[in-house]
């Protein structure tokens, strides 16, 4: 009886501490004008085992195949949209970053509250810190009621919420090179140098992009991380004008009839037929027998005659192709594609995660993340490999640097809370002795 009471008491205190110590996310703000939208990525950590389609629906109806492609996961496998992804998996979610009220933000993602949901739970658990409870409350015009914290008050089941999500683009360039920006929620134990190393950028670059006064960030801060990318040169008349693909990943376009990849050998966009939809326009270069993505070589005494068929954009329902011919010193080898992997079944957690409130339900699509909606077959299965999935978390730190402008949010645990948590830990040891 004593063990039962002590266990329940300790569990209740730990839950109270977890709820009371969630820091409000601080986000990089990018001023903008007009109504243009640009490509961005959201860093999202699954709070429960979820189907690919459920994650896609949570973020306004992203195409499940596009979600997989953005993470170099096999998007052409049969039933890929119904594969179950493990709790704790980190994903890059493709987003169209809108300009609203003079700043970059995705404001049209909508979420239907479930029984037991609170604003705090929706913000910190369901959306993994990409939005704060205060931001959601303000976006929906929800006022405070009574003396209780409105962020902890239960929501009405089925209540529709607009969830503002952070994104930046900075002209999709970094140091005058193509880049797509990832909104990354700083985790407990993260350091700016380790985050920079994980994403192959520099501390100086992250500090400049995020207007930081020092190389330190607090848990809950949201950093804009520039990722090297392959840029397209499609005309403005193309529906996929401005297509960007982060290095080491894929993107689907032309109604899921074309897949474009970036890297690993260079940052030149490389597109081939995908055929994930039922029927696709011709992908053959005019006046030739070369298909999109194919390269024809003919060695001569003067060098190598090379003919290649490139992608020029999706215009009026037509896959535009470009035939390139020329003499090169030697014939090129086979193109190296980014490695596609099977969706992982488990994740090696290196930090604690809050338990799910309940099974995730479908969200209401908000329309700010447009993408092809059809799915099928056609991904290059020859490049699919099984194996472990790299969980992009950086090792814990044992110290803190000087405060910077992005680190004004309080630490996840204040000093009194640290003392309280230490007390609880000792209490648990006492009852288990």
Automatic annotation (TrEMBL):
<feature type="compositionally biased region" description="Low complexity">
    <location>
        <begin position="370"/>
        <end position="383"/>
    </location>
</feature>
<feature type="region of interest" description="Disordered">
    <location>
        <begin position="363"/>
        <end position="411"/>
    </location>
</feature>
<feature type="signal peptide">
    <location>
        <begin position="1"/>
        <end position="25"/>
    </location>
</feature>
<feature type="domain" description="LysM">
    <location>
        <begin position="109"/>
        <end position="163"/>
    </location>
</feature>
<dbReference type="GO" id="GO:0042834">
    <property type="term" value="F:peptidoglycan binding"/>
</dbReference>
<dbReference type="GO" id="GO:0005886">
    <property type="term" value="C:plasma membrane"/>
</dbReference>
<dbReference type="InterPro" id="IPR036779">
    <property type="entry name" value="LysM_dom_sf"/>
</dbReference>
<dbReference type="InterPro" id="IPR018392">
    <property type="entry name" value="LysM"/>
</dbReference>
<keyword id="KW-0732">Signal</keyword>
<dbReference type="GO" id="GO:0006955">
    <property type="term" value="P:immune response"/>
</dbReference>
<feature type="domain" description="LysM">
    <location>
        <begin position="182"/>
        <end position="225"/>
    </location>
</feature>
<dbReference type="Pfam" id="PF01476">
    <property type="entry name" value="LysM"/>
</dbReference>
<protein>
    <recommendedName>
        <fullName>LysM domain-containing protein</fullName>
    </recommendedName>
</protein>
């Amino acid at each position: 009886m004593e063990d039962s009471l002590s266990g329940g008491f300790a569990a209740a205190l730990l839950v109270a501490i977890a709820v009371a110590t969630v820091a409000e996310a601080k986000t990089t703000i990018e001023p903008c004008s007009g109504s243009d939208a640009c490509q961005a990525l959201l860093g999202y950590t699954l709070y429960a085992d979820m189907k690919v389609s459920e994650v896609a629906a949570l973020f306004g109806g992203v195409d499940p195949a596009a979600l997989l492609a953005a993470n170099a996961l096999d998007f052409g496998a049969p039933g890929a949209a119904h594969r179950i992804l493990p709790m704790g998996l980190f994903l890059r979610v493709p987003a169209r970053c809108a300009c609203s009220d003079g700043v970059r933000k995705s404001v049209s993602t909508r979420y239907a509250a479930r029984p037991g949901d609170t604003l705090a739970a929706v913000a910190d658990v369901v959306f993994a810190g990409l939005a704060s409870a205060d931001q959601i409350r303000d976006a929906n015009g929800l006022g405070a009621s009574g003396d209780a914290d409105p962020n902890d008050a239960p929501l009405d089941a089925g209540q529709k919420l607009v969830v503002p999500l952070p994104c930046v683009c900075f002209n999709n360039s970094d140091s005058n090179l193509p880049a797509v920006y990832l909104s990354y929620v700083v985790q407990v134990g993260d350091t700016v140098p380790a985050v920079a190393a994980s994403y192959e950028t520099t501390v100086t670059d992250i500090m400049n992009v995020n207007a930081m006064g020092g190389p330190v960030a607090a848990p809950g801060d949201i950093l804009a991380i520039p990722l090297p990318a392959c840029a397209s040169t499609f005309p403005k008349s193309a529906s996929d004008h401005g297509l960007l693909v982060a290095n080491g990943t894929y993107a689907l376009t032309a109604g899921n009839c074309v897949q474009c990849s970036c890297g690993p050998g260079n940052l030149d966009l490389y597109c081939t037929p995908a055929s994930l939809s039922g029927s696709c326009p011709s992908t053959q270069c005019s006046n030739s027998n070369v298909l999109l993505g194919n390269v024809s070589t003919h060695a001569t005494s003067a060098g190598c005659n090379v003919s290649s068929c490139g992608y020029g954009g999706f215009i009026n329902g037509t896959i535009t192709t470009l035939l390139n011919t020329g003499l090169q010193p030697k014939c090129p080898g086979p193109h190296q594609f980014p490695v596609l992997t099977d969706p992982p079944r488990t994740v090696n957690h290196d930090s604690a995660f809050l338990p799910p409130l309940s099974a995730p339900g479908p969200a209401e699509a908000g329309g700010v993340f447009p993408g092809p909606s059809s799915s099928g077959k056609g991904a290059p299965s020859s490049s699919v490999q099984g194996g472990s999935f790299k969980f992009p978390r950086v090792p814990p730190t044992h110290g803190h640097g000087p405060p910077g402008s992005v680190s004004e949010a309080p630490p996840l645990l204040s000093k009194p809370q640290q003392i309280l948590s230490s007390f609880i830990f000792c209490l648990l040891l006492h009852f288990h002795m």
